[in-house]
Amino acid sequence: MFQGNPFDMSIRHQRGLWVLLIASILIIFAPRFFLFLQNDESAGKLILLPVEEKPRWDTSKKFKRWNSTYKRRKWSSPTKSFKKPTKPFNPNELTQEEWMRFGLSEKQALIVLQIAKRGIHSNDELQKIKFIPKKTFDNIKDFTQYPTLDKEDSKKPALASSNAPIVVNANEASEEELMKIKGLGPFYARQIIKYQQQLGGFVRKDQLLEVWKMTPEIYAQIQSQITCEITSIRKLSINHASAEELQAHPYLNWNQANSIVKMRMQKGGFKSIEEIRESVIIDQETFEKVRPYLSL
Known about the structure:
Layout: H1 11-47, H2 59-72, H3 96-101, H4 106-118, H5 123-128, H6 134-140, H7 151-155, H8 160-163, E1 168-169, H9 175-178, H10 186-199, H11 216-222, E2 226-227, E3 236-237, H12 243-247, H13 254-267, H14 284-290, E4 294-295
């Protein structure tokens, strides 16, 4: 017969009872807990809208609003103001401000003033100035007045200084003198002087075609107004000049200059300029071009 306290259990039995109790609680309340979580998630979905349905920034509406504002805005017109003169005038006597009042830009007005210094004698000449817009010409053509010659002067032959072209010696002319040549601006005047100094002087007029940026069209326009009178040509001594000095001449490259110096050392000096033709890298064309600039 069993004796003792019926609730007196061993530690192992107590642990098993607690495990059974916890497992029972989990089995009972777990479905309810998961159901609660599902309801909470579904409730959240009803509150929060997807990004696609309600974006934070409605860019299309913002662009339409900006575009409509841009179209309504009044922008200042970039068109020039072309004003008509109120009284007759001589185009040769207008100031820069007056030309700008007729619609020219500041730069255009300066160029037209430079042209006016040489004289504008008719509306045909005025219309040919490409820096004067057609609208400006149409506005002022009926108001222009040009100085006329007296009857006695009209019977006299034109002065040579007014009709005959200026002839300038390219070997002695300054930049200002070269700019007096019709068709020659400050850029080409500087380039002609620069090349003349590099050469040591022009010996032929067609050497102007070797000037940097010189075109056959410009050369054809100025060749009757320019000469190359040989007063003094700066020459290089082939018996004394260094390779660097010879190579600085436009007609000789480094190999040719160095070849001349080496030949001079081998020969103990040149006795004639023609001896440099013995170099295989100095052809006849180069020799003929550089010959006037060499000395012993």
